[in-house]
């Protein structure tokens, strides 16, 4: 484990980290922050399914069975100082007895995993709200809530139950970090120890989209140009109708949408110039982006999007590619480097303008420079300085003995 002299108060501590699906097709800030924390402190990553009520699809059922079986296994080491375990919860929280079952099983399973991983004195770190009933119940020196989304607005969740969990965890946390600026005022009213912590970017990885040696995947090499590209989850918050309309308006363009489709995309598949290669490993995304002539952010105008801090924007800019996006308060902060559109016609006009002529020299480098200092390492360093200060200000707590793995 690497030393981190600036955070001496954290020395000897580990982290029990409650995040979303470690194996999710789309890498989120939950994964990026956990990996960077593990370069500084030992981390037990608790894969915490159960926020969304599973549907009846075969994929959901297979995933549920896989998570239940994983809960019976010991933690396994996935990075030098990062262990992974799964602690699922029953999502039907309004049924009597379900909450009590989740609480009892969750606490037992996490304590067992901590013993196996050999993590003693610790912080608790929540990136999802539904296991928040464990806040302050694990002998932790400090409880951190890193709120990266408006969780009650997610598709498929019980908004009332998840909203209550989010509210309760905001109150219980010793420190709260909030990525979406729109949520910051309300979160600060609940907890004065709340800090703004915007998303970061793996700038070094996405810069590979500009490297001559980066290969373009075979499926994207022979697409008719220009190529309008998107990578990320294809979910309810993506405006599929906008994409379909654009593709029909410009049948000689190729639309390349890289990512797992969690919604029905048959109408797009029927269009000959729309290509959906499915989910691809995160580290391969720069190769796909290299095939783009322009990247798009086609979000819908809904509550979840309004209360977001788009991670995708920083990743696109780090590739150096031109970007056309719907208007969004956080994206407007980057309006010097992004074309913004207010409606369908404006989106198409922005694409036409971007693709009409070669870009001026230095345009790609300017976009990359705009996010070069917003790396995940810097974000985690900033957060840990605040955590370290909070630890130093606290009355010393009884230490938790290091437990040998069984």
* Distinct helical segment count: 16
Write the CATH architecture name of the largest domain: 3-Layer(aba) Sandwich
**From the helix content, strand content and strand pairing, which structural class follows?**
alpha/beta
Counted beta strands:
14
Beta-strand residue percentage: 15-25%
What's the overall geometry? globular
Question: What are the low-pLDDT stretches, counting only 5+ consecutive residues below 50?
Answer: 1-5, 397-406
> How would you spell out the order of helices and strands?
EHEHEEHEEHEHEHHEHEHEHEHHEHEHHH
State the share of residues found in helices, binned by percent.
25-40%
Fourth CATH level, the homologous superfamily of the largest domain: Glycogen Phosphorylase B
Describe it for me?
By secondary structure, the chain is an alpha/beta fold. The chain has 2 domains: 5-200 and 375-393, Glycogen Phosphorylase B (Rossmann fold), CATH 3.40.50.2000; 203-370, Glycogen Phosphorylase B (Rossmann fold), CATH 3.40.50.2000. It contains 16 helices and 14 strands. It has helices at 29-37, 58-71, 98-117, 159-172, 184-190, 203-206, 218-221, 240-249, 266-269, 285-290, 303-306, 311-319, 329-332, 344-356, 363-371, 376-393; strands spanning 14-19, 43-47, 76-79, 82-86, 122-126, 142-147, 175-178, 194-196, 227-231, 254-258, 274-278, 294-297, 323-326, 339-341. The relative contact order is 0.13.
């Amino acid at each position: 484990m690497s030393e981190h002299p600036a955070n001496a108060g954290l020395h000897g501590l580990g982290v029990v980290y409650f995040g979303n699906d470690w194996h999710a097709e789309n890498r989120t800030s939950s994964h990026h922050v956990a990996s960077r924390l593990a370069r500084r402190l030992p981390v037990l990553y608790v894969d915490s399914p159960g926020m969304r009520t599973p549907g009846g699809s075969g994929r959901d059922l297979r995933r549920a069975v896989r998570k239940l079986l994983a809960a019976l296994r010991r933690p396994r080491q996935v990075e030098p100082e990062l262990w992974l375990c799964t602690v699922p919860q029953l999502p039907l929280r309004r049924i009597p007895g379900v909450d009590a079952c989740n609480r009892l099983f969750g606490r037992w399973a996490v304590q067992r995993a901590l013993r196996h991983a050999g993590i003693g004195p610790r912080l608790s770190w929540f990136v999802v709200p539904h296991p928040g009933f464990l806040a302050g119940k694990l002998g932790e020196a400090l409880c951190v809530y890193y709120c990266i989304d408006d969780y009650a607005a997610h598709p498929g969740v019980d908004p009332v139950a998840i909203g209550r969990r989010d509210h309760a965890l905001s109150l219980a946390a010793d420190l709260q970090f909030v990525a979406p600026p729109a949520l910051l005022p309300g979160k600060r009213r609940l907890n004065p120890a709340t800090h703004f912590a915007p998303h970061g970017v793996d700038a070094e990885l996405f810069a590979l989209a500009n490297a001559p040696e980066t290969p373009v995947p075979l499926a994207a090499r022979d697409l008719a140009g220009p190529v309008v590209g998107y990578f990320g989850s294809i979910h309810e918050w993506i405006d599929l109708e906008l994409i379909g309309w654009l593709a029909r308006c410009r049948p000689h363009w190729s639309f390349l949408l890289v990512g797992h489709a969690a919604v029905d995309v048959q109408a797009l598949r029927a269009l000959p110039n729309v290509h959906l290669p499915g989910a691809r490993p995160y580290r391969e995304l720069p190769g796909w982006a290299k095939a783009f002539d322009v990247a798009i952010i086609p979000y819908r105008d809904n509550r979840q999007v309004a209360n977001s801090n788009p991670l995708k924007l920083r990743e696109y800019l780090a590739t150096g590619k031109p970007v056309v996006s719907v208007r969004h308060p956080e994206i407007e902060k980057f309006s010097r480097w992004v074309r913004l559109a207010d409606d369908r016609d404006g989106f198409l006009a922005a694409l036409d303008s971007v693709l009409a002529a070669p870009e001026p020299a230095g345009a790609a480098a300017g976009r990359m420079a705009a996010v070069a200092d917003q790396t995940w390492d810097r974000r985690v360093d900033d957060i840990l300085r605040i955590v370290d200060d909070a630890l130093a200000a606290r009355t010393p707590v009884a230490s938790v003995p290091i437990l040998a793995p069984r």
